[in-house]
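Chapter review: from sequence to fold.
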Amino acid sequence: MTEHEQSVQYINEYIARARAAQAEFEKMTQEQVDLAVKTIGKVVYENAEYLAKLAVEETRMGNVEDKIAKNKQKAGIVWNNLRGKKSRGILDTDEKTGITRVAKPVGVVAAITPRTNPIVTPMSNAMFALKCGNAIIITAHHRAVACSGKTIEMINDELRKLGYPEHLIQILDQHSREHTRNLISSADVVIATGGAGMVTAAYSSGRPALGVGAGNVQCIIDEGYDYKVAVPKIITGRSYDYGIICSGEQSIICHKKDYDAVLKECEANNCYVVRDDKERDALRAAIFDDKGKPISNSVGQSAETIAEMAGFSVPKGTRAIVVQPVGTGLVDPLGGEKMCPVIAAYGYSTLEEGVDIARQNLEKDGKGHSVSFHSDSETNIEYVGSSLCVSRFVINQVSASSAGGSYFNGLAPTNTLGCGSWGHNSISENLDYKHLMNVSRIARFMPNNHVPTPDELWK
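The token string follows.
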């Protein structure tokens, strides 16, 4: 038997188990479905510290404290968003159109999950899948198989106690590109959260796919807005989990008259500001290769480690390194996505110029993802929101912890952020349970509807 044939057999066994489990699960009531979804989130919430330690130990990215907070926050907000929402059977009837919507499962979901979020991404994808009566098979990053696998094992132990079908949630215990290719070409829907290569593979699988794009969140501070309010939020987001969150802040863009004061405020928030050209060049060389791509051993490391890699030192406890690039991301990779706690700083003369800086940086990385804007002007908020090609604008919030949904905004809580056609994705919103639901529509005959005359149509 060839390697390909062995892989096909291996994956077919997973698919068969998933289909058998899903056939039983879709017969269950909304209440039973919701209990299963709640159980998934509760397991991660109650074991947040243990799973955070496992993740840092295996992936060697991020820090335990932030991962604990992330595990608890995501488990809570995802469940809070899903509870009480109808996802099985008849959803509603529109009296005006006569359409009744009926929710049905998509079947078996395949999910590719990343090294950067090895606990909460499998968790949320499983919650979305089961919410709609589906089964799910997860293939984790090869450097996150153990911690992601333990998460699923603990979830399944609790589901088993409650009498749910075996194999509703599975995770591949062997990792290879061949297995991933065969999985995503055999499932009914594919979710791809990770690098561009995996997302491209998902869209090439011949199955409906939901992918994500790169992040490079541009943080614009409006002229006149209190930078002492904005900067602490921006630095909190940039330093969160050592900068590996795709929705984390990447550039500060402020008015030139506030620029020096903003840098001092960054220092007041335990940042190191690079003021030397040699340090800037060394920093760039430490985190980017000669093609402007992130160097893997810099990803998810502390500011102190990054500085050491660049050949200079920063004070102990430094949260982030602030640097002024030689230009936008079109000429300097420091204006692009940085997978570590390094943030670029730019000054603008007009808001239009600030928006253009953001636009150019997004052309390098992150087009379609997110922008953070700190402003009290509804006019300027609408201007920025109308001017840049991203899927979400986070206003006066920490983007790292709110672009993926929070208790304090209306974005769907998720770990998979679609970037629309700008980021070569099929959705321009946060992945939610509704994306894993088929909807049948019952269309009634409505004989009393008005039929317009030609004059009414065309005059």
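Two observations follow directly from the output. The mean pLDDT is 96. The first helix runs from residue 3 to 25.
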